[in-house]
């Protein structure tokens, strides 16, 4: 009995044909395939009548968040062909690699570059490939592979194997590989030794065939004879379904394309599907037809003359390169030569290892997409599915939501009790990234006032059980066995992924509210607290906090959101207060953000939370208000919040006097406008309840020169923009009194002009103001 090791390239039609030929001619007793050994007891799932491509999906929850990986199968994948042929021939079929959830899903494995050509620890591999590319004048390893292997006649099995053995031997040489390589090769070698030992015990003299990646061929061949075959390989199993697991999922052609980021893949998988089914000659003709059809469908002018030139160029290129029939690189190079009319700034996207992006030439991009393939596979109805999918079916049924292959548009109103649970269900699916559930818009068409988006009640959804429905849900099973638990875990991960981006955190909180996950407050706040050190922009944090304040203060259509949002708001407020305490100097250009940050405390203090240190907050704001080194806008806003919430002194009269005293110390030209902008943001009442603040402002204006006044005017106008029309009228009456205007003059001051004359007058005044501003160098 012999052991033969066949080194292959994943998803190579030539290698798949060779694997099928060896199984047919050798009639092996066992076929050992590089694949996750923990799936052996479920290997019959792969023998069901699936439509490919599909993938063996594995996940692990050993780290802070779930890790995932995919092991795809196409009709021409050597592993798939070997599995099916071996089973048909009655051989014992086993996967012999480590479980994928044990090494491929771990964070260090995800960070490691998937493509061996790019791995710095495999420099010999890269150097050998580069030398061969130069030797055979091939642009990149994909063109080299086709030139050396895919171009051989389908029946040239002996020559193909000789080339493969030599090629992989040269690539690996004496390279020990990475630690991960060594662990995997040790496992696969032990399986080979054990299977040989078991066959000897049965006196089974049939050969054993090992089908593995060519990189691992030489170590397995040299290692397995040195091992004790009586030791059965360890079978690793996860501690629970939540800890780790594997399921089959439908896959798409674009997901197995090397140009899309799959490091072990071939470029243009649809082209090789045609080559596998019909041969290279037919694949080339179909590729040309598909490319021309797609380009014309995209309104690219491809004339009959262009197609004739393309055909002639292709024939010449393939003959020049010694190819009996055109290869994929020949076709694409001919497309570039015959159809691209201008010079290119960079090599074609199929050359090298970069991914296909929108920065590539659009014609070449479309040509590649034409032979990448659209759509994907489908699992057999008897394929086991994770518990999450069954829970989703139960949830949809219980809430009366039907999602089918036909698109359904739903309009759900949060004000209706029957729509709230349906909306929560769809939001949970959306949190998990189920592509068939799309939120088109959120509206409030019948609202009496213009509601912020966070409070709008009418949700417009588009739902369909598209080709990604099952893959999305199966992959989401890594987060939990039920829809609620999975959505909860995904939200916590999203907060972690936000990496201190408050807007993302606020969006996650709003998603939790709309998904009905109101008990996640402490969990999300704790996660947020760990992200706090990465937040350094108090204005950015404030923008997110105001969104949450709108929801928690207004309520969310019958839901009490305090438990979810309250703790997060307190964490944000603490960080804002710390950051504000470090603001010094002139920050005029940041006045709006500074004031918005201080205004957060007005909302938080109104919540009256026992967990918030109200006294410390007000003492800090009062200290900021009197500090001459703090930016004026922050001083004014801090003073306003401290005044409104009785943080200056309990005596309101004394507090007003203190407020006026602080206002009088503000330099009129440089800072008065910003100070008042901050003050009026939260304390407009101090300007209209009596004329004290008006008199203080008037005194400051009287002390200013014309030039100083023009410098301060834009900021002063911004400060008074806080007042609504009714309050502006009251303020105007106070100004009239301070100025000592007569009744007629008061009427003229307070009367709003109407009609075209008012518009023309306003434009004249504005034009004059801009002229003065330009003369003084205030604006350009």
Describe this structure in words.
By secondary structure, the protein is an alpha/beta fold. Among the domains are: 3-251, no CATH class; 270-370, no CATH class; 386-580, no CATH class. 55% of the residues lie in helices and 8% in strands. The chain contains 33 helices and ten strands. The strands form three sheets. The chain has a four-stranded parallel β-sheet, sandwiched between helices. A three-stranded antiparallel β-sheet has the order 4-3-7. Strands 8-10-9 form a three-stranded antiparallel β-sheet, with helices on one face. A hairpin with a 6-residue loop joins strand 3 (54-60) and strand 4 (67-73). Helix 22 (562-580) packs across helix 23 and helix 25 runs antiparallel to helix 26 (652-664). Residues 108-121 have low confidence and may be disordered.
State the gist of this model.
The chain has 780 residues and is of the alpha/beta class. Helix 25 runs parallel beside helix 27 (668-682). This is 4-aminobutyrate aminotransferase.
Question: Keywords, please?
Answer:
33 helices, 4-aminobutyrate aminotransferase, 10 strands, three-stranded antiparallel sheet, alpha/beta, DUF5682, LolB, 55% helix, single chain, 780 residues
